[in-house]
């Protein structure tokens, strides 16, 4: 099939997509873990339902394959079903394969536009984004969105995104880190770095404060490090059907990390193996994708080996947090933690951020009900399926309000954006912050 992976990395090893989906026994354990099933009660909106629809699609049982579109397009890709599944059926990967089949190798218009800008004309991308942010600060972006010109151009999601995005940074993270000589231009003969910072697009272009907080934490708790000055991880293109672009971005990032190591930027802690210096990112969705790079190259042994070496070094910032930031004083406002789906289900990271937050905030920490519940952001899902996303979001805001939290920490750009929108709308007494920011605030 054109522009599909055909083989997936599963708990049972490498399997064809059909073999992977055939592992679903239709037991139904996934249903109550699936947010879209819980809020709608529709069988085809559950993990089990989507797996069976994907299997029928692979078997050619649909007279009109587009009949599978609703079930596959409404998946949040959160992975909660896989966590609940005894066989760990990789439903999110299967759903993505189904979407690629339905698109016939053609990604959406917005993804193609972003690929052209981010890959071929990155300076134009930066200029376009800064121009859009300037229009937002002047109040013109919202007025333009209301003209419905974007809807007519098939880019209606951008108009909705404008209402969600509150921040419009004047400078981007990569610009600020390039000026920080400690992480961009180390002195000749300086000690090998103990970490390498990978800037995901969210912290880079939307929340520079997150990246700055992460780098400051890493400096203070792990010593000297370096900024990789990297391109996009490629997740957007992977999720929206352009595997060729996703592979190109993956190769660039692998080569960039390899060059850093060859130049002495990837040296180890304490003079041990050079591979020991971790590559740290602070958007859990992007980090999970970096760790999954080997799946892109299952048919290319040389690149697969390089991708495996790269992914072994990747760490979510949640995995390297200081475990005793600040001094517990018992007087802090109630703090809760929202699991990014790609941290909890995609990487299996649940305890480290809780340990760090409990150490920092002592008795002020509150555990949310339904720990693995998605916020409904899921990349662009909030803009492509706003009604369904809103139902999932309202449930999550209800969980936050139920513990009377005044601050909720999370680790993914999509979660920051979605929870900020939901809290403004339904529970303005609470704010959202990245875990790095919150720990830095407490420790400062």
- State the end-to-end CA separation: 54 Å
Gyration radius (Cα, Å) is 21 Å
Overall tally of domains: 4
Let me know the largest β-sheet.
Answer: 4 strands, parallel
Quick structural overview:
By secondary structure, the chain is α/β, with parallel strands linked by helices. Helices cover 52% and strands 7% of the residues. It has four domains: 7-103, Fumarate Reductase Iron-sulfur Protein, Chain B, domain 2 (Orthogonal Bundle), CATH 1.10.1060.10; 109-164, no CATH class; 173-320, no CATH class; 335-443, Rossmann fold (3-Layer(aba) Sandwich).
How would you describe what is shown here?
The chain is α/β, with parallel strands linked by helices. The chain folds into 4 domains: 7-103, Fumarate Reductase Iron-sulfur Protein, Chain B, domain 2, CATH 1.10.1060; 109-164, no CATH class; 173-320, no CATH class; 335-443, Rossmann fold (3-Layer(aba) Sandwich), CATH 3.40.50. The protein has 25 helices and 10 strands. The chain has helices at residues 17-22, 35-40, 47-58, 69-73, 80-84, 91-103, 109-120, 122-137, 140-145, 149-152, 156-164, 173-179, 181-184, 201-205, 208-222, 235-239, 243-262, 284-291, 301-313, 341-344, 351-361, 381-384, 386-402, 413-426, 435-443; strands at residues 7-10, 13-16, 196-197, 226-227, 279-281, 314-316, 335-337, 365-366, 407-410, 431-434. The strands form 3 sheets. It has a 4-stranded parallel β-sheet. Residues 266-274 have low confidence and may be disordered.
